[in-house]
Amino acid sequence: MVSPARVDAITDIAYGALIALAIVLIATLNVNDIGVAFGIGVFASYVVHVVWKMARFDPDWMTREVADQVGKEVEKSVGETVNKEVEKSVGETVNKEVEKTVGDTVSKEVEKSVGETVSKEVEKTVGETVNKEVSQVADEVTDTVSEEVTGKVEETVGEKVEETVEETVEKTVEETVGEKVEETVEETVGETVEETVDKKVEETVDEKVEEKTSDDS
Fold first, then answer.
1. Domain count, the chain
2. Which of 42, 78, 92, 136 could cross-link 22 (Cys pair, CB 3.0–4.6 Å)?
3. Is residue 25 a contact partner of residue 41, using CB atoms and an 8 Å limit?
4. Which residues cross the membrane (predicted)?
5. How many CB atoms sit inside 10 A of residue 98's CB?
6. What's the CA angle centered on 178, arms 172 and 184, to 5 degrees?
């Protein structure tokens, strides 16, 4: 009885010889449809033989090959999918965290810097403006107060001087005129009365003397 292993070996040798013959014919002869068909038939037969032999001596070969291929494809697909998802998720998370952290940091720094700058500028501007306004208002108030005080002082002094002068002049005139009139009246009345009395006395005496003389005669 022929051993199955020997039959398989002889079959493999025959297939190898046919393949070698097909290669030689394709390389040496002109390319035509018969040669190409023969070569394709030989290769197809060898593939069928290999599959048959592997299925006979290693029944799990096809399953293992398919499982390995499927495993490789699954690993590749799952790996790519997981990598993409991980990259996407990690990228989004990192971007969000970075944006949040950078945004918060930048916002704080910008707020702090802007706040300090604005405060300094506002203080400087307000200080200068207030100083200018206060100086201007002080000058205006000083000028206004000076004008008002000067006007009031002049008006008050004028009124007081006028009243004082009027009172003083009136009083002085009254006193002086009174004294002068009194002295003049007294002097005039005294002289007039004295003259009148002397004159009346002389006339009366003369009349009496004349009457007396007339009576004696």
1. 1
2. 42
3. no
4. 12-29, 35-52
5. 10
6. 130
Q: What is the mean pLDDT of residues 196-207?
A: 80
What is d(CA 20, CA 34) in angstroms, rounded to the nearest whole number? 16
The pLDDT tens digits of the residues spanning 105-148 come to 756 775 776 577 656 775 776 467 646 765 674 576 467 646 76
Measured between alpha carbons, how far is 17 from 19 in angstroms, rounded to an integer? 5
Residue 194 lies in a domain: no
Question: 166-202: string of b/e by CB count within 10 Å (b at 16+)?
Answer: eeeeeeeeeeeeeeeeeeeeeeeeeeeeeeeeeeeee
- Range(s) of the domain holding residue 44: 4-85
Residue 54 near residue 8 (C-beta atoms within 8 A): no
52 is a domain residue: yes
Length of the chain as a residue count: 217
In a domain, 165, yes or no: no
Residue 157 lies in a domain: no
What gap in Å lies between CA 41 and CA 70, rounded to an integer? 29
> What is the C-alpha to C-alpha distance for residues 93 and 81, in angstroms, rounded to an integer?
18
Question: What span, in angstroms and rounded, lies between the C-alpha atoms of 74 and 71?
Answer: 5
**Which comes out higher in pLDDT, residue 70 or 10?**
10
Helix, coil or strand: residue 1: coil
Helix 33-57 vs helix 60-216: crossing angle, to nearest 10: 90
Q: Which amino acid is at 153?
A: V
